[in-house]
Design a protein that fits this description.
The structure is a homodimer.
Chain A: H1 24-38, H2 45-51, H3 66-78, H4 91-108, H5 112-116, H6 124-140, H7 145-174, H8 179-189, H9 194-204, H10 208-232
Helix pairs in contact in A: 1-3, 3-6, 4-6, 4-7, 6-7, 7-10
Chain A binds a DNA duplex through helix 2.
GO biological process, one term (chains A, B): negative regulation of DNA-templated transcription
Keywords (chains A, B): DNA-binding, Transcription, Transcription regulation
InterPro entries (chains A, B): DNA-bd_HTH_TetR-type_CS, Homeodomain-like_sf, HTH-type_TetR-like_transc_reg, HTH_TetR, Repressor_TetR_C, Tet_transcr_reg_TetR-rel_C_sf
Chain lengths: ~230, ~230
Amino acid sequence: MTGKSFSSVWLREPRRSTSPGRSREEIVRAAVELLDAEGLNGLSMRKLGAKLMAGATSLYWYVANKDELLELAYDEIWGEIELPEPSGARWREVTVAAAHGMRRVMLRHAWVADLLGRVPALGPHALGFTSRLRATFQEAGFQGLEIDYATSTMTAYVFGMTIPELAWQVKYAESELTDADVRSLVEHVVKDHPGLAESMNAASALDTREVREMCFAFGLHSMLDGLERRLVT
Amino acid sequence: MTGKSFSSVWLREPRRSTSPGRSREEIVRAAVELLDAEGLNGLSMRKLGAKLMAGATSLYWYVANKDELLELAYDEIWGEIELPEPSGARWREVTVAAAHGMRRVMLRHAWVADLLGRVPALGPHALGFTSRLRATFQEAGFQGLEIDYATSTMTAYVFGMTIPELAWQVKYAESELTDADVRSLVEHVVKDHPGLAESMNAASALDTREVREMCFAFGLHSMLDGLERRLVT
DNA sequence: ACCAGCCTCGCACAGTGTGCGAGTGGATTT
DNA sequence: AAATCCACTCGCACACTGTGCGAGGCTGGT
């Protein structure tokens, strides 16, 4: 009775197939592989069809359009995040583990960055994750809407911290720049900003990866401290 | 002496033009307008050319390729963020204002979400903003790498909190769903997750926009509390 | 008058998502 | 056994994309 077309992947049953290698799950799995290997621009229906030894348009039997396929692929990787059982007493441990889990999955599938701002996380895997994370905050003692606020804050932090990392990673991978090239670019561009230049010098003695991880941990624990304060007051 | 091609917009001088309406700045401004109106997929070189009463390929005189144009557009909107003068004493005020400024600009230019994960923020406007924000944290009392950690944490939070909002906004705008349609979709999809369903019910009595803003403020202040704690210890 | 340089743009190519409608093969009904 | 149906595949075509190339035009200096 919705009147208009109004469709969503999550409202339709997936189509089953007789011939093997041809099902929504298979297609989504192959799409994820292709995305991992070649990025968002590397995924085309024709390439995906070829990978599955099918015509490009055959896939449209299982999937309404490419956007839907991307929604499915997006939800798929939400399923990869390891998340300990909710536990109110050890909510910080659980939350820290969840944050690192999210970050790991994002780094593994750099193309998520392109979908975060386009696809609402409404798939079963995404909801499952969110739901369990929410339960953790609830058991920790948050109440009412603040349960959701805390959950959102936590996921927001991980997204926001990891996305720019992915931007670097992508820019890196697609052009063949050496570390020295990148450094010289940044040095040049940062010239008019003494503060940034100074911090770049300080960081350049250390391993980039390590700095990123320290930064992530610093922000994460700060944020959790802040949330914890909201709790005991 | 870099050996390889290795180019970046930020290393090349923009080309000047004789005929009016044709310059890097004009083109970028028009691109931003088009992006605002039609989103990332709505921007094509041909449409942009038409808007400027120029052939599509004329633009390539001023801009190496579309990616470069997007980098320029991305940096352009960094310049729109209002940021008070750095002030150590009132660093929280400044930071809160900066966060809301970022959020406002993002909501105004929903397509940033598509670029955050693809384009490193190396343009002059982005660096200017970052540099001044950094100065604020420095004057607040942070030291060494922690100045940058705090800065990153803050921007990460704003990005991460706003991006999913943009996803909804986009999905909304491009399909013509009514509020009721959206609610029924979410209700349906959330059925297996009692916690989420409950919180949805609690929130549905309130104005969506208001809830989003309360959530944003809650997380922001939590995060700043956490950072402040790092400071006094 | 000639030339050099900046600047414009038409053409063409390879590639995209996807609607359409014809085809195929196996199961079910008559 | 024949006819019918339906799940499924896919070739073709269309409109559209970014962009390399190279032919032109305009402007100022000699």
